[in-house]
Fold each of these.
Amino acid sequence: MSKPHAIVIGAGFTGTAIAHDLALRGFDVTVVERGPIASGTSGRTHGLLHSGGRYAVKDQESAIECIEENVILRKIVPEVIEPNGGLFVAITEDDLAYKETFIKGCEDCGIPVDEITPQEALRLEPNLNPKLLAALIVPDGTFDPLRLALSFAATAKKNGAVFHLFTEVVDMLLDGQGNVTGVKVWDRTNNTRYDIHSDIVVNATGAWVGQITKMAHAHVPISPTPGIMVAYDRRLVNRAINRLNRPSDGDIVLPQRRLAVVGTTSFSIDDVDYVPIDRQQVELMLQRGAELIPAIRQAKERGVYMATRPLIGASGPGRSISRTFKAYDHKDLDNVDGLVTITGGKATTCRAMAEKTVDIVCGKLGLNIPCTTAEVPLASYRAFYD
């Protein structure tokens, strides 16, 4: 009996995690990506391994997903994670007033949280604002974005998945009833065009999912929402530093290798392939980041970059849109069979997003194969290029 064949469009965190899951469940897997691994949003994240604390008050579904997957990723891919922990710090009286609400939210979501004195916080992180009023420890971490995606991809490849990089999906293959039977692609490495047939196509293109579903005369309700991040040339902190308040612009400072990264903003766009840098937002990151870590003002700007989040919602950006994820079977949504779309979520939840998506794929094909990705250690990211 031949294996079922799945095409995965997109090789970011979610696409590579889906390829890994499908391969473990016995599928023939073809991954199509118009650039290199993690060339879209996944390669432009700030690399926060979420504890769920940011969402524990207003988006508890996302918070619970984050803390559960935080624990799993630490176990299956420790090579790419810096398990350095995180601090939520109060700088103003308004921040301080949020503390009890935050603690209760964390407790409700199962997120470990401990209060330490401002003096203890300054001992741990000497570059914190010395005027801080309170500090709470949560199990945040940081990860290397490219290496995380490569680890999933390397493991999928080891188990038989085939990657077509620099290969763009230009259209869907449809049967006489309008159902998806594969994709038409353009291989940019040699300027050839060809068709790939499959039993199922998974759309894991993040902020670009709408462009893919349109090819199948289908749709998905997301709001592409970019955010700007600024990297500075000094590693000023060793933990993830969060503002103890409702999520807002410039309220995170993260360590990444020898840098400090401040993020992020949230706004709307018309074209996901063109997100210009707004210098006012860069200045805002400096201003807000310096409220947490004053020494940022003495550091040099190393780089500015954007990531476009595929937030679930019919229209409009904003911090109120849920950070959870949803997988759509387009047979149910648009009466178009053969296509499943996954969108929303966080880098931290990519494994869970893959599990949910592949569960739907298996259900559609009448297969009862359990997911094992929470227990299977990932291969080294280096192995993708072996």
Amino acid sequence: MLKRKATNNIKKWVENKDKKCLIVQGARQTGKTYVIERFAEEYYEEVVEINFKEIPSASEVFSGDLTVENMIMALRFRFPDKKIQPGKTLIFLDEIQECEEAITSLKFWAIDNRYDVIVSGSLLGIDYKRASSYPVGYVDYQMMYGLDFEEFLWALGITDEMINSLREYLDKRKVIPESVNNQMMNYFRQFISTGGMPEAVQKYIEDRDFREVDSIQKSQLRGYQYDIAHYATAEEKVKAEKCFISLSKQLLDKENHKFQYKEIEKGARAQKYYSSIEWLLRADIVHICKKVTDIVYDLEDYAKDDFFRVYTADLSLLIAMKDFSLKQHIIENTLSGNTKGGLYECAIADAFHKKGYSLYFYKNDTTKRELDFVIQKDGKVIPIEVKSGNSRANSLGAIMKKKNISLAYKFIDGNIGDSEDGIVTLPLYMATFI
């Protein structure tokens, strides 16, 4: 059983006396159903579960008046073995995007507030135009991603005590013993190769066979392509899939990782493809990193909507777009050139995205200064550079001095280094602890 951080977040929701309904949202195959079911087993006497994809006829429960009394009665007739008691029964509505009336019902469950209702869905964002049925103000949200590196370490059997010792090295800026750091980098390369999708991680933990992992990743990639073909509008289907599949070329095969429409097809323009990027974003299949024109709070005020990078929702999807030899190079640490730099950049983007940070990057064509990432925390901006080696971060130092920025991170394939002029040098895997 994979230990997931989302479980604690769901527990906090349950303990909130003024709770609303909880929507666990995220891309397909990230473990939403599994986490909710395991949580229900531990904290409730029973669970009433409806998967609207598996049981389309269950939509009938929500076809009449959406009063709680009517819905409870309909549920009891459909599940006669269930008592459905307030505080003792969890009502779990899975793949709720398949039943618009069930989405509407969340408002009335929340107002009544006697029953705990958790729902999940993988494509909830693509129906944003149907706002009239959406229960704004009556739901809490939990975004569900694939496993991050810390969760991957748990799966490997690394204890919290061992992980906390790593955090102490980070907090004290102390060099990590070389044997420990080398092993952690080995684990990190395993994580990059496996990605965070629970099924792939579980298979790797059981068999340590990357060919089996690769087979699962390829199957999941096809599943994402199916979702695009099945759920995208007729005018977006082909375009959205082309945008999605182009990401391996955009991120791993060239030095400039800005999303370029010409990599989709010759002569392509934003006018034709921008709406497809937006669809992929709303479907939680990708996330983006916008360019900013200045490095001051609030970064969103300086973001350019038409100049961005696009990353897959999980590393496993990007890795699956390449053949098996990429995994071999990652594990054997024989990557070089644009592929190595691009992959490490993607790994850092994955780490910060899964921690909930909005990602930006900076590039000034006049001064030739650029930053791989900029995030903000507690009202301050934090520049970030990612190095495949341990070269100097000249742009980072110059920008910090000009902007009077006191803290920045440089992530390297190496060890913790001395803090120089506010630049903290850290191993790549440390991004998951920031």
Amino acid sequence: MPKVQLSDFTMAYDDVGSGKAILFIHGYPLTRKMWQPQLDELSSHLRVIAPDLRGHGESTATKGIYTMELLAGDCQALLDYLNIEKVILCGLSMGGYISLAFARRYPERLAGLILTATRAAADTTEGKANRDRAIQEARQNGVNPIIESLIPRLLSPSTIQRNPQLIESLRQIMQAVSVDAIIGDLSGMKERPDSRAYLPEINVPTLIIHGKNDSLIPLTEVQDMNSAIPNSQLILLDNCGHLPNLEASALFNQTILDFIKSI
């Protein structure tokens, strides 16, 4: 597993396969390990890159707010190090917020955009209050209470029933996230800007993937995002919650391959 020293931390990443480059950006509070089915299956068709964001997995932590722009800049610095001029970006949940920040800041680097289980709107007042409560919880009790409260909300009821192994592997992935990263992520998501006004400016082919049983992001928000982004398509996956890349990995991977062949 390679690592690179960036401005103020060391980033761990996977880089496998060859051809068109796709960069996968993980969600909160996860690591690049969430993309293992994509690394395994898509690397025979594409160059697949998956970093651990700062403080997650095997990347070192920094203190402070992890703004979406900061994390997008980290991904851009990794692409510079790897001499990748243009990339297809795939972000899930918080990774989608980072992808939108990347698209705003570095539009010339994008060859395509895949937004998974994510939204363009900023946090509501209630959402911000929930982030504050989670920050307090992490400060007082560490990552485990955060993990246990999230797991039932990340997966569809059918996944929870039929795939206990996935629940255990998710738990292990999330336990590799530092308290600094939990607090940094929550603080950054809480203050992220509303991206809805920017959506009509996105000028690369865009794929939106959403689980039909996602309990965290309403379908109406995703449909509005699809309507606002020119040249975008929306694919809904049955029996999937907030992690369709893990809940229906074969279908998710095929959806990505079909999209990339079309661009």
Amino acid sequence: MKAIQVGLLGIGTVGSGTFNVLRRNQEEIRRRAGRGIEITMVADLDTARARAVVGDSARVVADAREVIANPEIDIVIELIGGYGIAKALVMEAIAAGKHVVTANKALLAVHGTEIFAAAREKGVMVAFEGAVAGGIPIIKALREGLTANHIEWIAGIINGTTNFILSEMRAKGLDFGAALKEAQALGYAEADPSFDIEGVDAAHKATIMSAIAFGIPVQFDKAHVEGITTLQAADITYAEQLGYRIKLLGITKRRDDGIELRVHPTLVPAKRLIANVEGAMNAVLVQADAVGTTLYYGKGAGAEPTASAVVADLVDITRLHTADPNHRVPHLAFQPDELAPTPILPIDKVVTAFYLRLQVADKAGVLARITGILAALGISIDALLQRPNDSGGTEGATQTDVIILTHDTVEGEMNKAIAQMQALPTVLAPIVRIRKEELN
């Protein structure tokens, strides 16, 4: 049988990895797919770089639209990234009747609904395993492996850059700025790391997983997103003393009144496996009714880990290339006309526990005022620490750090409590608030 013909748009880090993995493992891939898979055209503005990777084994062009226009190309791999030209090219490839493989989480999180609808109309597939958690096959697990389950929640370390920074802050006592510089020096962080450290990259991935898990449209604009730029070394130390570690988590939960979709720093019990995921590694924890808790761990980025996912998508499409479109696995796991209009809940309706750190004047009655405010709003305390603070005092008074862990409460009530506590004259600095998840 004739090999399936693939056009590759963008041959940077992941594109090069995809080409090399496909070439190196071509015989094993052919045996699994049932026919050969060949990248026969590559489009990249840097044609010299592209030729250095592919040699004479593929035609290299500068214009991606030449690849899309080629009637011999069955599958287009989009590895350009971003929302702009990448979206235009993906939509043009679909319109031309080509299947699409992409690792572009930003594109799918923002425009996935439109892209999947266009693909359904044309009877083609859009595969995107590489868009979430690199080489970890979490999309296939959610779409297929867990299809018998009622998924309850997902919590994931899905950005290696931020996990590396937090690991260094904890292990070496570094502040955020020093840990970021180390990440950049080692190549874990970009020169402009904003998408990573502000939580946007993780939110793109969490949005995609949420849609697949709960059968809802992708709704990145409804996600609550916080990064790690304001985290302080003192809070990582205090969390450790209380038996917790701080991780940037993408969290999505099913509730009776809607779906929680949020990315933020989170205290996780140190005894949980996910709390011990260090460095640039990724991990995704899924809670479901039939199977219970499952954990998926591995490299979340890099040339060959992501290429592993891209090539797996190529194999899937090759196997189903001639299948009736109605017999293929739906893009978001649920049949398109069965997607639910379940609302994404605003952050002030989220229910979680909290870590609070208050810098207060060390005077009689201060703690009673603070705990009284929490009690009046129905917020119960799980644990409390008081530690000296050597940053000086006001009018001769010393300062102390009060660290409080609460039980679960509605975020809106916690916002009221923080506003009232912040207004106390004995609270001397902005209150630090970090959400806490037991993940049990």
